[in-house]
Write a structure and sequence with these properties.
The complex is a heterodimer. Chain A is α/β, with parallel strands linked by helices. Helices cover 33% and strands 35% of the residues of chain A. Chain A has two domains: 37 residues, no CATH class; 179 residues, Double Stranded RNA Binding Domain, CATH 3.30.160.150. By secondary structure, chain B is α/β, with parallel strands linked by helices. Chain B has six helices and seven strands. Classes of the chains: A alpha/beta, B alpha/beta.
């Protein structure tokens, strides 16, 4: 009896039943190997790093210089998650943060520079912004029963004056997705979704910044305008 | 414009996940025997397969146009073709379809100057990110009056924005195909057929007036077949390609009527 493959219009479902021993065993071995490889690929997870190329926002600049404090935890931030039967997943976000915030502040302020300490005097800037990542989540199409890889990022921003005093803090939740049909592999799609989430965080920051009460009070004090 | 916080998902979707299945997706040529044709009959079949692969199934395409204002392009003017990507997870137009429409419109003797979608989105960041992008033409004036954006659009000489929505989906499939491998050889027998439907709509926004200049819809339907007597012979209906070509041609004549 020959090895048979029954095929529906879209899917092969293979099984082997071999009577012709020598060839049959080879075919069965090949099928087993293929099944194992497919299972391993299906369970492999992904390890991605967010690219470091970001656009510069095209917005009206705040006429103040600002300092940026990026702590070690942010610069080394990697989200790791093990999913049952779906392997280990890793999204490395830390290495993208310097260029992401440099471009963001480049577009939003007349000047910016990195500072090494947040609670210190910085006479050449009007304030210091200190971002941190509080939470990262992701979903694969298999989990969400959709066609999308999705990534959520929750940032917390703290604003300090140029004497090191904390003026206030606020959170920002960003979201990115990537359609699986536009990508050849899991890694590429997850990376694209993470990148989209970072871009969304930048876009949201440009819109949200001037609406935060602590920022409004700081701008009013520094620019002499009513809060 | 009030910024909205997206909500983080609650609970972990992994708990809803089904166990993985071992599946082998059918692609063109997957079911072909792997050994080389060793006699004239098999050579002839291989040739037949190659010829039939080049054949297409039948595609029916329909294009409709609604014009609201007059349109014209001057030398140096440009347009951009954008895919609609809203933030709540809904159907998204395929990236290669957007590229196909842009490329088709820029080709030929009367080709239009089309700015690459990603280059445009980066150049005007963040105004056309999913969170901020205008949802309808009424939102456009508020966004393009932003001084830095207005200056950039002026420098690009951007005349029209073309938003594309829609997708291609498999709507029907039937038949069965059985393949067998024996010590003496192998082959397939059966018949598969499937239908793909494309439905796309392009909205043309006038940057100068901030109004909707018109809409063009393109629909295409096609049936693909795969008969198999020893060798499967795919006869593929190029539905999406047909929808792209007809939409691009109509957009070209709509934007730049000769």
């Amino acid at each position: 009896m020959p090895f048979a493959i029954n095929q529906s219009p879209t899917v092969f479902r293979g099984f082997a039943n071999c009577a012709a021993r020598r060839n049959g065993v080879k075919v069965a071995q090949a099928s087993l190997l293929l099944s194992i490889v497919t299972l391993l690929v299906g369970c492999a997870g992904a390890k991605v790093a967010v690219p470091t190329q970001f656009p510069v926002p095209l917005v009206e600049k705040v006429p103040l210089p600002i300092g940026l404090y990026l702590d070690e935890a942010l610069l080394a931030y990697t989200h790791r998650e093990s999913l049952e039967k779906r392997g280990d997943w890793e999204i490395e976000l830390g290495s993208a943060q310097p260029s992401m915030f440099a471009n963001l502040l480049d577009g939003m302020f007349v000047g910016h520079r990195l500072v090494k300490q947040v609670a210190a005097r910085h006479r050449d800037v009007a304030g210091v912004l200190a971002p941190s990542i509080e939470e990262v989540q992701f979903a694969t199409p298999e989990q969400s029963r959709s066609d999308y890889y999705e990534v959520w990022l929750r940032y917390r921003f703290k604003l300090h004056d140029n004497q090191g005093a904390e003026l206030g803090d606020w959170e920002l939740t960003a979201y990115g997705k990537a359609h699986k049909q536009n990508h050849a592999g899991t890694g590429s799609a997850l990376q694209d979704a993470a990148m989209a989430a970072c871009r969304d965080a930048m876009a949201f920051f440009t819109q949200q910044f001037a609406t935060v009460p602590a920022v409004q009070a700081w701008l009013a004090k520094e620019l002499g305008a009513p809060a | 414009m009030k910024p909205k916080q997206p909500t983080m998902r609650k609970g972990h979707p992994a708990s809803r996940a089904a166990p993985p299945q071992v599946e082998f997706r059918l692609r063109r040529g997957d079911a072909s025997p792997t050994h080389q044709p060793s006699n004239p009959a098999l050579s002839a079949l291989a040739l037949l397969l190659a010829v039939c692969t080049l054949l297409g199934g039948c595609v029916t395409a329909t294009v409709q146009e609604i014009r609201e204002t007059d349109t014209a392009m001057a030398g140096g003017d440009a347009i951009v073709v954008l895919g609609r990507r809203s933030q709540p997870t809904t159907d998204e137009t395929e990236l290669d379809f957007i590229t196909c429409v842009g490329d088709s419109m820029s080709r030929g003797a009367e080709g239009i100057n089309v700015i690459d979608e990603q280059q445009f989105i980066d150049a005007v960041f963040p105004w056309f990110e999913p969170r901020i992008a205008p949802v309808n033409s009424a939102d456009l004036p508020e966004i393009i009056k932003q001084p830095p954006l207005a200056a950039r659009l002026e420098r690009m000489r951007l005349k029209y924005l073309v938003w594309i929505e829609g997708s291609t989906e498999r709507t029907d499939s039937s038949g069965s195909l059985t393949c067998a491998v024996t010590p003496g050889g192998g082959g397939c027998f059966g018949f598969l057929s499937w239908e793909n439907d494309s439905s796309y709509e392009a909205s043309v926004w006038d940057i100068d007036t901030g109004t909707n200049a018109g809409k063009i819809s393109s629909e295409a339907t096609g049936m693909s077949y795969m008969p198999a007597v020893i060798v499967p012979i795919p006869i593929i209906a190029r539905v999406r390609s047909s929808a792209c070509t007809s939409l691009a041609n109509q957009l070209k004549s709509f934007i730049s009527p000769s």
